[in-house]
Amino acid sequence: MKASQLKNLLPTPSWEAIPGNGGGEERDQPTMTEPGVDVAPFPFVWSLDRSSDVGRALLAATRRLREAGSDTPQLDSVVLMAHVLGVSKTWLYAHPTRKLAEVEICRYEVLVRRRMCHEPVAYLVGYKSFFGLDITVDRRVLIPRPETELLVERVLSYVKYLIREGRTPRIADVGAGSGAIAVALAVNAPKAFIYATDVSEDALAVAAQNVWRYGLSEQVQLLPGNLLEPLPEAVDVVVANLPYVTSSALPGLPRQIRDYEPALALDGGADGLNTFDALFDALKSPAGQAKLRPGGRIYLEIGAHQGPAVQALAEKALPDASVEVQVDYAGLDRIVVIEL
Fold first, then answer.
1. Within a domain: residue 8?
2. Which residues contact residue 143 at a Cβ distance below 8 angstroms, ignoring those fewer than 6 apart?
3. Which of 71, 156, 196, 211 gives 176 a disulfide partner, CB atoms 3.0 to 4.6 angstroms apart?
C-alpha cells in the first residue's frame, strides 16, 4: 500500500464560542467536537477575560496548568498560544500586549482545558518535533520520544556506510506507527529505500501524512501487516521500536500516556517482551530468514532494564548472530544491535 493510497486528513476541531463573563472567573466550558472522536466532558472549567492580551492569557494559563499538575506549565501555555496564533514562541515573547480576538480566546481556552486533563501537547497541536522534523501525530499513534532519535542515529550511521560502499540500502521499519523513524531515515539518507509496516491501518494513515508532507512517496512504502510478513523482498536493515511496557506497568504510567496514547503501541505483555518474542520467532523461520539479507543488521529499541532479556532471546533464536546491547546518554539500556 503506497502513501498515496493512504492519504488521510487530520480531523479539524470545531469550537462553539461562548461569551465570557469578562472577569476571568470559571464558567461553563465551550463545546468541542472532532469528527469521529468521542470527547468526554471536561472536569475543569476555566475562562479568560475577554479583553485579554497575549501576556495576561499566558500568565493565567500557566497558573491553571500548574494547578492541574502539568510538569511544564509555562512551556505548555506558550506552545498552545503559538499554535492558536500561528506564530513562533519567540514572537509571543516579543508581543505580550497583542490583543486576542474572541475566536482566539475560545480556541485557547479549549486547548488549555484539554491540557488540564493531561492530554499531550503533541496531540493538541497535531505534531511532535523529531530528528529535526515536525511529525504529524494524533491519538492513533504513539508520540515519538527523544530516546528514539538515538536509534535513528545508529541506523543512519550504518546505512550511510552501506551507501559509501556503493549499495542502495533496503530498510524495514517494523511497527512504524507515525512513520517518524522511516521519514527521518529517508530524509537523511536519500539513497535508501524504506518499507514501513504496521498492524494498525489507522497508524499507517497517519504515517502516510508524514510521508506525503516530506515528499517521500517514492522512497517510503507503507505496508499493512504484522512484523516482517508484508515485506516483498529481503532487506539490509530491520529497525523497530516495538511495544515493551509490561502490562502490569500500564496503569502506573503518567496520565498523559496511559489515558491518551494507544495501548497497542505500548503493551508488551506480561514481561514486556511479547513482540520481541514474535519477531525472533519470525526471524528463525525459513520465511523470516528470507526477509533479511546475509550480513544484515537488526536495530531494536528496548526498555531501560531489558538489555539482558532481549539479548538472551536474540542469541537463542539466532545463535550464529552477534548481539550487542547499547546504552543511551543516561547509561541505560536502550538499543540492541544484532548482526547476522
1. yes
2. 120, 122, 123, 128, 137, 178, 261
3. 196
